[in-house]
Amino acid sequence: MLPGGHEDAELHSLTREGALPQRRGVRREEKPGLPLRRKVCYAVGGIPYQMTGNAIGFFLQIFLLDVAQVEPFHASLIIFLGRAWDAVTDPAIGFLVSKSPRRKYGKLVPWIACSMPFGVLSYCMMWSTLSDATPTFLKFLWYLFTYSFFQTCMTCHHVPYSSLTMFLGGTQRDRDSATAYRMGMEVFSTLLGSGIQGQIVGSYHARMTNGCYMSNETLPNTTTSLTDSLENTRRAYVFASLVLGSIYCLSCLILTFGVREQPGPLSPLGKVELPFASCLRMVVGHKPYTQLLCGFLFASLAFQLIIPALVAVTQVMHNFLAFVFLVIMAGCSMAVLYLLPWSMLPDTVDDFMLKNPSCLNLEALFYSFYVFFNKFAGGLAVGISTLSLHFAGYHAGDCTYNPSVILTLQLLMAPVPIGLLFIAIIIFCLHPINEERRKQMRMEMEAIG
């Protein structure tokens, strides 16, 4: 007994001193960090949504009013109804993604790859113009259809893409790092979209403005000059859509071939069996998630109210230094809007999965409602700004602007967004998932697998 016990004690000592470090080493090998290549490929996949969305946010209103020459009321309906339709389809697409089975190339990536050709085609069609002889109602239907169809394609891209954050593999820290890469690439893509489109169409808009000045001075041949300038501007918008569409296609290909979905203990990439009503009731009933949605809605509405006002300021007030200052302020707000709420969402989903282990595979539905509120706030903001300009007396093609238009822009840019951002910050500060709860969730997830 004593020799055997002594041998068992030695074995126990060796296990403590030698085997345990080996087990720890094996654990590190089983959960390696995300490679840089996968993070970059994942981040590149976010370019299409932000690039096209920013180009639309900056230029669609100007395109409809001054280039396509749509009535201001119809333009506001096109933008608002298109964004509202897009927002309504988000939960539906999210539920369909959750119900879709896992295939050879994954569960989420096939949605991104299959929606890409239709998204590129509809984006190019949206920036094309119809004949001037086309009836007003047909113009309205054409732009409403192309805009709504493109937004639907982007929903099929962005809802699976945003949900892909939960399936990249690695640890919680790796996921946060991938989210930071994504946020950085999305900020770059916002500059890319507005920069490319602005460089292509900006000079033609300047020529149209000069034509207005010449027309006011009643110089000869100004009508022909304005017509030629308008046609050149229309061709420039089509060319810009082709360039951005090519970048859209390339980014999707990099994401498709550079990222593989990795299931986890709380994210098995399975198929949801519950009906939509039950899933919706469980998601909305999660208090940390609903609180985060409210804060995200106020922050989105505040920021997106500033975008159309900035565009109009460039047309009304030719003050470069003031515009640079406003862009810097908007950039700071954009950083807070993108990084803070999106970094809090994965922790909220983990909290739900830990509290409801029998209700898995709902990640796409969580992200779809997040995208829903973002897009609804965008449509509401653009609709409010466009209708405000309409009631303030803005008319397409006017070379001068009355003081009421300038006053409306000033109101839209300062008091309203500041108040909304203040409310959003308060909601974020009161969110129940703090750093202590986050560490507790990390320990529970490590214990599971």
The count of domains is 1
CATH class: Mainly Alpha
Question: SS-based structural class?
Answer: mainly alpha
According to CATH, the fold-level topology is Growth Hormone, Chain: A
Indicate the proportion of strand residues.
under 5%
Provide the low-confidence segments as ranges: 1-30
Whole-number mean pLDDT: 78
- Count of extended strands: 0
3D shape: globular
Number of helices: 15
| Biggest pleated sheet | none
In the CATH hierarchy, the architecture is Up-down Bundle
Question: What can you see in these coordinates?
Answer:
Belongs to the major facilitator superfamily. It is found in: Membrane. This is Sodium-dependent lysophosphatidylcholine symporter 1. One of its GO terms (biological process) is carbohydrate transport. It is a multi-pass membrane protein. The chain is mainly alpha-helical and 449 residues long. It has a single domain, classed as Up-down Bundle (Growth Hormone, Chain: A). It is built from 15 helices and no strands. Helix 2 packs parallel to helix 7, helix 2 runs antiparallel to helix 8 and helix 4 runs parallel beside helix 6. The longest helix has 45 residues. The two termini are 39 Å apart.
